[in-house]
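EI: anyone free to look at a 315-residue chain?
SC: sure, send it
EI:
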Amino acid sequence: MDKKIERIPQRDGYGKGLLELCKENDKIMVLDADVSASTRTAWVAKEYPDKFMNVGISEQDLVGEAAGLALGGMIPFVSTYGVFLSGRAWDQIRTTVCYNNLNVKFGGAHAGISVGPDGATHQALEDMAIMRVLPNMTVIAPCDCVETKKAVIAAAATEGPVYIRFGREAVPVVTDDDTPFELGKARLVRDGKDVAIIACGAMVYEAEVAAEQLAKEGIDARVVDMHTIKPLDGECISACVRDCGVIVTAEEHQMAGGLGGAVSEYLALNCPAPVEMVGVNDRFGQSGQPDELMSAYGLTSKEIAEAARKVITRK
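SC: here you go
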């Protein structure tokens, strides 16, 4: 990949998406739990103060107020760190929002290990699993700031609960305004016939780097951006099995319950095939610099390429 590739935080895309929605839709409300500078909802507070509410450090109340707004016909976006949103407010999300299929959108910031120095308490590594298990919930893990903005806009146009996870650190921008984005429809990044690498979030870029390295070894790797974890694009997975025979999943999340788990469930029920997972292996995070943590937890192109080589031997 081009070493000069631009890097922008995904959270910037979240903020820009909300600004665009606030400009165009009178029903949008943005709620935050006293972390608006980090989630970029401070941009909304400045430009559209009547559309912004800071409920303080009270995640359960945050979700409850959003549910009330949704019942009143508004489209509320709940914004705070993903680990607190999916953890502390899970009961309210489950019983108040999802059980009633309310039109509440959730922005889970600070996702993944790359949060860095904030450490394990702030690094959301289980949020996709926690959100994916809930009936009526749509789960999105966009790959960069541009795709994050598109996810926000698409979420507003989708009826029912939607969870969008996004990171804090600047990540490579690998899409542009013209790159297709459709909820529930995976994006083919690179075609190939020897192995399919299905990735989400910041790992899409790492998958592209791995594919380039594998190409130098004569291995033709397909790369897929599976930005929607639920509903999963089963047709894409089936095509990967048909054309490539084996699959690698890559995510900045626990291996259990996230993208790897979702893909494996689909494979087991529909088209069994060898799969290797790249993700966090049953560990909590720790404090450190983002790049150091990604390397220490095996979340780089190196591990993806190794998984690809390994799974090919299982054909």
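EI: The mean pLDDT is 96.
SC: 👍
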